[in-house]
Amino acid sequence: MFRGFFVHRFFHADLHPGNVFVAPGEKAAPIDWGMVGRTDRRTGMLLMLILLSLAQNDGHGLAKAWVELGHATPWAKLGAFASDMAVLVPQIADAPLEELNFGLTLTRVLTCSTKRGIRTSPTVAVLGKAFANVEGSVRCLAPGLSLIEVFKAEMQHVMLSLAAETVSKEKVARTALEVMLGIGSVTDQMSGLMRGRHSTPPAEG
After folding, report:
1. CA 104, CA 112: separation in Å to the nearest integer?
2. Which one of 44, 79, 131, 180 is most buried, counting C-beta atoms within 10 A?
3. What dihedral angle (degrees, nearest 10) is formed by the CA atoms of 20, 23, 26, 28?
């Protein structure tokens, strides 16, 4: 599922429980592909950055990535939006796993950003609906499955696939090491990968 959103950039946009075929001992199979969506590489990477910011309780990082994803109007209140996210993100990040809903979260962020004068691509609304449908289907068909754990398991593959499209294996390795060593934030490192460069480590002393 996550690979469809972020790597292949082609996804089922109406994956409610009635559009999922499940057979004993087999993988679930989506049916009725009458409504699909596509994202471009940049949108997929920014959306991944937004979800990572949520997972890391980083409201500032989410606000920055969201503005990059959309367009700030001349009357946009970016400071107010950043403050909104500083309040909203901890509420979401601290919620129990069973209450966390990516689809509804994207919708809430979209509402806040619109109020603050930040225009967002219509694709984001479609993605929010698609996420909400997937989460509803999972809760209906596999209530014991945690999408958060699935996201964590898939994140490494998705990140490596995205990075491999832009930079060399050596640069990917360096960025990963810098993140593990705490040199710069994940949002800064991801932004560097998106632009085909890494962040420069701070000078000692």
Report:
1. 12
2. 131
3. 10
